[in-house]
Amino acid sequence: MTTAPAADQRRLLDVQALDTRLDQLAHKRRTLPELARLAELDAQLSDLHTALVTSQTAVGDLRREVAKAEADVEQVRSRAARDQARLDSGQGSAKDLQAIQHELESLGRRQSDLEEVELEVMERLEAHESALAEVSRAHAALADRRSEVVVERDAAFAQIDAEIGTLGAERAAAAQGLDAGLVSLYERLRGQLGGSGAAALRGRRCEGCRLELNPLDLDVIKKASEDTVVRCEECGRILVRLPEA
């Protein structure tokens, strides 16, 4: 059976209390509400980014389409201007001038059709530019909110980390000089039992599992020397006997 000075066993409860608090702080750090909020904001930003890229692509495509439509209209206007200049000059045979007149009429119809196409594309572009502006504003607002939450998270991290640092120093001081075998057993049990390797025995109850020991086990513990390291038969933790027990 393992032995360790009774005083070391009682000090182990201080170490356990500090370890429990450190574990709670580590859990708090992992489960900050700001982290969940950031995950939610990141998901929303991802969706908005996809919408933003889609909208930017549509606007880019439509701007190129508008440019092409404008070029097509300008090309017909230039051709019509040249034909009109030739017609106005009166140069050429009657047949040639008649052909130019017919071409001007055809170009007029062509220009009208192209201008309708241009107008339709410009209207679609305007609608998409409006949608793009709205998505951009929403994305920027969400990005600003995320930045605010990052600041809140970092402030919470700093506060928790400062407390962890203070408690860590206290824990190191509390464990300083403890029996090596006792500490080794305690650390092993902590890993196996969810962070709690030692508990006080109060009356008949183990403070670790909150169960009462049966009379036979309690009698064995009472008869053991105070330096004997006893274990709870129910949960396996180190049972630290206090003077009043």
UniProtKB/TrEMBL annotation:
Classification via InterPro entries: CT398_CC_hairpin (IPR056003), Oxidative_Scav/Glycosyltrans (IPR052376), Zf-RING_7 (IPR003743)
Keyword Metal-binding among record annotations: no
Pfam families named among the record's database cross-references: CT398_CC, Zn_ribbon_9
Every C4-type zinc ribbon domain range: 205-239
Protein name as it appears in the record: C4-type zinc ribbon domain-containing protein
Keywords assigned: Coiled coil
Native organism: Cellulomonas edaphi
Coiled coil: 59-117
Gene3D superfamilies: 1.10.287.1490
Keyword Coiled coil belongs to the record: yes
Domain of life: Bacteria
Domain CT398-like coiled coil hairpin: 15-193
